[in-house]
Specification:
The complex is a heterodimer of chains A (about 190) and B (about 280).
Chain A lengths: L1 H13 L2 E6 L5 H8 L13 E2 L8 E5 L7 H10 L5 E5 L1 H5 L21 E3 L6 H18 L42
Parallel strand pairs in A: 1-2, 1-3, 3-4, 4-5
Chain B lengths: L1 H31 L9 H10 L8 H22 L4 H20 L4 H32 L14 H4 L1 H14 L14 H4 L10 H22 L6 H21 L5 H26 L1
Helix pairs in contact in B: 1-3, 1-9, 1-10, 2-9, 3-4, 3-9, 4-5, 5-7, 5-11, 7-9, 7-11, 9-10
The chains are: A alpha/beta (about 190), B mainly alpha (about 280).
Chain lengths: ~190, ~280
């Protein structure tokens, strides 16, 4: 069975099916995500298929500002994906809330709700950056399967001051009470 | 005894051939859209990955339906390779299609349910054509046995050209290709999120996909039967059918079900088939 296991592990890296969830963004990031599927970039070369269904997908691409209304949906989509899975957070709003950071109705990033593996900054990021983010997510999957070295932890740009809840891959991230905006002091 | 062993051998080779043809299909499709496309072995990577995923299901019926779909596809192919009975093959094939619908309606997901309703309409469209094609086989050979075709001296294509075209309709529907692809939305993933296959995930989706490969081999095998006298003829017929299907898939928009069932399939497909049968009866 060692051979079959090995084949399955290698196949995982060759067929990352994505599901794309827009938490209410301005559509800029979403257009860039879909641009990756066009003949110009053609990510199907690497086996990437836009599955549009969390139950079929391996990689979750999240864009847009996470707020109190859609955080349940985001969590549910994440939980519907069968393991092994990876999460790529795309765009300024999804990383930290962007221009809406610390407003009363916005949570500061998807990492407050689900464990994020890769951050892709930008407003919006270029399709090349998004493809690179998916490739990095595959590196994370590879490390989880014990096939490669653990990638260096990525911090959100501008938030690398080491506050514990800003660390990606922190298992504790979803358990923290996401309902209260953390820095809404005033 | 030899027939059984060769049929089982064929059954083992069929998923490999089906996967390769699917990979070729994806590559040709990509080229038609001026893309590079995935590697030829991509369908195998997909299947292996799906088999290795965590098995999550909504209920046990879904798992049962996935297994029955695969078993009935495999059984239909086995009957075909053993030169068995066409009517038996038809019924076994129908069981698989019905269980896909059963699997899709046993969950509360609206996408899955809409997909199931559409799958029933698709069955309404292709099953009469398929059975008329089998009646055509029987009128030419005098028996419903597949092996009887090989006793004919002339290729069936000369006697049943219109039935071959009608089989093309059934092929397009069964392969979930574009103008008729309303139940699973194979390429337009966003509209129905795979319709009847929405709720299957991980290993069970892999079973459904392998069943689809076996169906592909079976239908292409039926196409090959129309020119049984030469291997070159079979290859030409299969290659031409498959390429035409891929081309049609890429240049057509999807039809609404009313169009598909009433005008395209029932009128045109059945019309072609009936004219051909009438001709066989008179000649």
């Amino acid at each position: 069975m060692g051979f079959v296991d090995n084949m399955i592990k290698r196949s995982r890296l060759k067929s990352p099916w994505i599901v794309h969830f827009d938490c209410g963004s301005c559509n800029g990031c979403d257009i860039e995500v879909l641009a990756c599927l066009t003949p110009m970039y053609d990510v199907e070369r690497f086996g990437v298929v836009n599955a549009g269904n969390p139950k079929h997908a391996d990689v979750l691409l999240v864009t847009g500002t996470v707020n109190h209304r859609n955080r349940h949906v985001l969590k549910q989509i994440y939980e519907q994906m069968p393991s092994p899975k990876a999460v790529v957070s795309i765009g300024a709003c999804n990383l930290s809330g962007g221009v809406f950071k610390d407003t009363y109705n916005v949570l500061n990033g998807a990492h407050t709700i689900i464990p994020v593996d890769v951050y892709v900054p930008g407003c919006p990021p270029k399709p090349e950056a998004i493809i690179d983010g998916v490739v990095q997510a595959l590196g994370v999957l590879k490390a989880k399967m014990g096939l490669g070295p653990q990638p260096a932890p990525t911090y959100m740009p501008g938030d690398a001051d080491g506050t514990p809840d800003m660390t990606p891959n922190a298992d504790s991230a979803p358990e923290q009470n996401p309902g209260t905006p953390q820095q809404n002091a005033g | 005894m030899l027939t059984i062993f060769s049929a089982i051998g064929g059954l083992i080779l069929a998923p490999l051939a089906g996967g390769l043809l699917t990979g070729l299909d994806r590559r040709i499709t990509a080229r038609l859209q001026s893309r590079i496309g995935p590697p030829l072995l991509q369908p195998f990577y997909d299947i292996l990955k799906l088999l290795g995923k965590e098995p999550l299901t909504t209920n046990a019926w879904l798992v049962f339906s996935a297994y029955i779909t695969l078993i009935s596809s495999a059984l239909a192919l086995l009957i075909f390779f053993m030169g068995g009975d066409l009517l038996l093959l038809f019924f076994v094939l129908t069981v698989g299609a019905v269980f896909q619908v059963v699997g899709a309606v046993c969950v509360p997901s609206p996408y899955s349910n809409v997909g199931a309703q559409r799958e029933l309409l698709l069955m309404l469209a292709y099953e009469p054509i398929l059975i008329l094609v089998f009646v055509g086989f029987a009128m030419c050979t005098g028996s419903f046995s597949i092996a009887a075709v090989f006793h004919l001296e002339q290729p069936l294509l000369l006697k049943m050209p219109l039935l071959f075209l009608a089989l093309g309709y059934a092929l397009t529907i069964k392969l979930r290709k574009s103008p008729f692809d309303i139940a699973a939305s194979h390429h337009g993933h966003q509209e129905l999120v795979r319709g009847v296959q929405t709720e299957y995930s991980g290993p069970y989706l892999a079973l459904i996909e392998v069943a689809h490969w076996l169906d592909l081999i079976l239908i292409l095998g039926l196409c090959a039967m129309f020119w049984h006298t030469s291997f070159v003829g079979m290859a030409v017929l299969v290659g031409a059918s498959l390429f035409t299907e891929i081309l049609i898939d890429n240049i057509t928009a999807r039809l609404t079900w009313q169009w598909m069932v009433q005008k395209k399939s029932l009128l045109l497909g059945m019309g072609l088939a009936l004219v051909n049968l009438l001709w066989l009866y008179v000649a």
